[in-house]
Amino acid sequence: MKKRYGLFAAGAAVAGLFAWNCIDTHRLTVSRYEIGSDKLKKDVRAVLVADLHDTAFGRDNKRLKELIEANSPDFILCSGDMVTSEKRPGNRNGQELMEYLGGRYKVIAADGNHEIKMAEYPRKFPFFSAKMYRSALKNSGVIFPYDDAEGVDDTGIYVSSLRMPLKYDRKFNRKRPDPAELADLCPKPVKGAYNILIAHDPLFFEEYSALGFDLVVSGHVHGGLVRLPKLGGVFSPDFSFFPRYDGGMYYKDGFSMIVSRGLGTHTVPVRIANPADLVVIDFKGA
User: How many angstroms separate the CA atoms of 160 and 69, rounded?
Assistant: First the structure.
């Protein structure tokens, strides 16, 4: 009898986790942050989108589009992985959303490891053309500031993007880049401005802090897939447990980093106590 009760309890627990996962992979939430600086010339709002991985929240991503519009952003930041490196047809949802946003807002973006991987190994991903994807996004108005920082109207904000080499995206025994190398991979901060760097992977917080930017926005870690009270995210895409930078805002000597928990899933479709995360950042001038 005890064994039967035990099996029933275990089955109920598994069913409960499955239901929870189904809910959180389809539930949209908003994380809000406020940043003040005397470098900012006016109050302005940004929305950060990250790690959609070709997910759709409603037909044509209607629910996600409505949530973005309801938060009235002045501009949008994208830290990459809107599509997924798969060897089968797909990625229409990610591309369509980016084109939609590019036609309505000022969108400033960086590639994630999935976009970079498909661009560098096209034969492995015959159903996706990174060149056509980038061209479609640029034609819609999406900006990738890898060479020169992009100004945001008269706000005092300049945004730069970092395209991280794939050698720093290994699953085990990951190397850490030298800050001098990173400085050569992105535009230099604009003197006197409030400088934002879009860098997909938050692991290198210490290295980013040495580059002279005021803020880095990242994603990549998907909130740690499963979140536990007080402990945070459990698992990172680099196969490490309890990643330090799993979501939220981090500080060091006047430097900040905001990490999105991401919007979608890939490979392991798990989000428990970790619903999809749209980030809203309110910049406040002095």
Answer: 24
**Of 261, 257, 252, residue with least CA distance to 279:** 261
Q: How far is CA 34 from CA 46, 105, 218, in A?
A: 10, 21, 16
> Rounded distance, CA 53 to CA 184, Å?
28
Place of tokens 């290198």: 204
Mean pLDDT (the chain) is 91
Cβ atoms of residues 154 and 41 within 8 Å: yes
**Tens of pLDDT, residues 233-256:** 998 887 889 999 999 999 999 999
Q: What is the CATH number of the domain that holds 45?
A: 3.60.21.10
Q: Which residue has the tokens 């990625």?
A: 91
Please give the tally of structural domains in the chain.
Answer: 1
Query: Could you tell me the residue range of the domain that residue 32 belongs to?
Result: 2-285
